[in-house]
């Protein structure tokens, strides 16, 4: 229970042991690996399900999370499969898209350090022609010292500030998580949105990989000559991160003049979350 409470607290959602109901096997001692968690709002449920679904606890255990409406749909699919019935396409459960659809129904633009987010509601308004009061009444204002970005699935709006990185999401576009790291130049999400790479070129170790679900740093790396913010690449599923580097190898000879230098390319690959 303590682990579950800790993971939810990283999402700025407070729960207690009373909000968690564990299921047990027939012996009544060992848990069945399943828990039901009661939250205060539907939005909290969607944020939690989207963030924790697919979260790797370790190499052998992975969380699967969903809201109660999706859980009922899943049970319906299983019942229909047992009865050998083919459900209508509109009834299929899309587990990968159960969370937030920020990029699909909202847009954002940036003017200097101001980032404006607004919902798409079937009509277009020319925001530049609005007064400040009119703009504030229909838009959410944020600030970012760098150009804002979206996470790969559009779940989070990423704002980089001088002393921290903020992640904004939800139907009301509220702060979901903050990483207190200064002088960040780039934020690169993994495709699965479970991990994030920060690039801070002024640090002794400019690259740091974070577990986005728990807001914990996993590992940091030094920067070799010629490397930049695009050095590291994520695998398509976000379970690996790798970089290509070139090193000069000196081959010894019988004399000092017979020494030769050979440039070789190396690929370093790291598996998440252990690295």
Task: Give me the secondary-structure topology.
Layout: H1 2-10, E1 20-24, E2 31-37, H2 42-52, H3 68-82, H4 102-105, E3 106-111, E4 114-119, H5 132-138, E5 140-143, E6 149-150, E7 157-160, E8 165-169, E9 174-179, E10 186-189, E11 195-199, E12 207-211, E13 216-221, E14 232-234, E15 240-251, E16 260-271
Antiparallel strand pairs: 1-2, 3-4, 4-5, 6-7, 7-8, 8-9, 10-11, 11-12, 12-13, 14-15, 15-16
CATH architectural label of the largest domain: 7 Propeller
Number of helices: 5
Output mean pLDDT.
77
Proportion of residues in β-strands: 25-35%
Order of helices and strands: HEEHHHEEHEEEEEEEEEEEE
Span between termini: 26 Å
Total discrete domains: 2
CATH class of the largest domain: Mainly Beta
Give the strand order of the largest sheet, numbering strands 1, 2, ... along the chain: 6-7-8-9
Oligomer category: single chain
- What would the CATH topology of the largest domain be? Methylamine Dehydrogenase, Chain H
CATH superfamily of the largest domain: YVTN repeat-like/Quinoprotein amine dehydrogenase
Radius of gyration: 23 Å
**Shape estimate:** globular
The portion of residues assigned to helices is: 10-25%
Reported for the largest beta sheet, the result is: 4 strands, antiparallel
Question: Which spans of ≥5 residues are poorly predicted at pLDDT below 50?
Answer: 86-105, 120-129
**Category by helix and strand content:** alpha+beta
Q: Let me know the number of strands.
A: 16
């Amino acid at each position: 229970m303590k682990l579950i409470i800790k993971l939810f607290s990283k999402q700025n959602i407070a729960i207690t042991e009373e909000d968690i109901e564990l299921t047990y096997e027939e012996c009544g001692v060992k848990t069945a690996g399943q828990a039901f968690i009661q939250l205060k709002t539907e939005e909290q449920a969607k944020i939690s399900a989207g963030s924790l679904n697919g979260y790797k606890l370790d190499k052998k255990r992975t969380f699967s999370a969903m809201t109660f409406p999706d859980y009922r749909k899943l049970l319906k699919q299983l019942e229909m499969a047992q009865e050998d019935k083919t459900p209508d396409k509109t009834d299929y459960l899309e587990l990968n898209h159960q969370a937030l659809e920020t990029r699909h129904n909202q847009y954002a633009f940036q003017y200097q350090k101001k980032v404006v987010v607004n919902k798409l509601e079937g009509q277009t308004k020319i925001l530049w022609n609005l007064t400040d009061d009119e703009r504030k009444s229909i838009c959410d204002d944020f600030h970012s010292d760098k150009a804002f970005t979206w996470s790969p699935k559009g779940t989070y709006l990423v704002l980089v500030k001088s002393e921290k990185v903020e992640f904004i999401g939800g139907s009301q576009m509220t702060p979901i998580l903050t990483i207190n790291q200064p002088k960040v130049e780039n934020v690169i999400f993994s495709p699965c949105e479970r991990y994030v790479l920060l690039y801070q070129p002024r640090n002794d170790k400019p690259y740091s990989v974070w577990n986005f679900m728990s807001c914990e740093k996993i590992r940091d790396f030094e920067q070799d000559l010629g490397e930049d913010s695009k050095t590291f690449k994520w695998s398509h599923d976000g379970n690996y991160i790798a970089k290509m580097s070139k090193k000069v190898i000196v081959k010894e000879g019988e004399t000092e003049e017979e020494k030769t230098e050979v440039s070789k390319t190396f690929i370093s690959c790291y598996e998440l979350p252990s690295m």
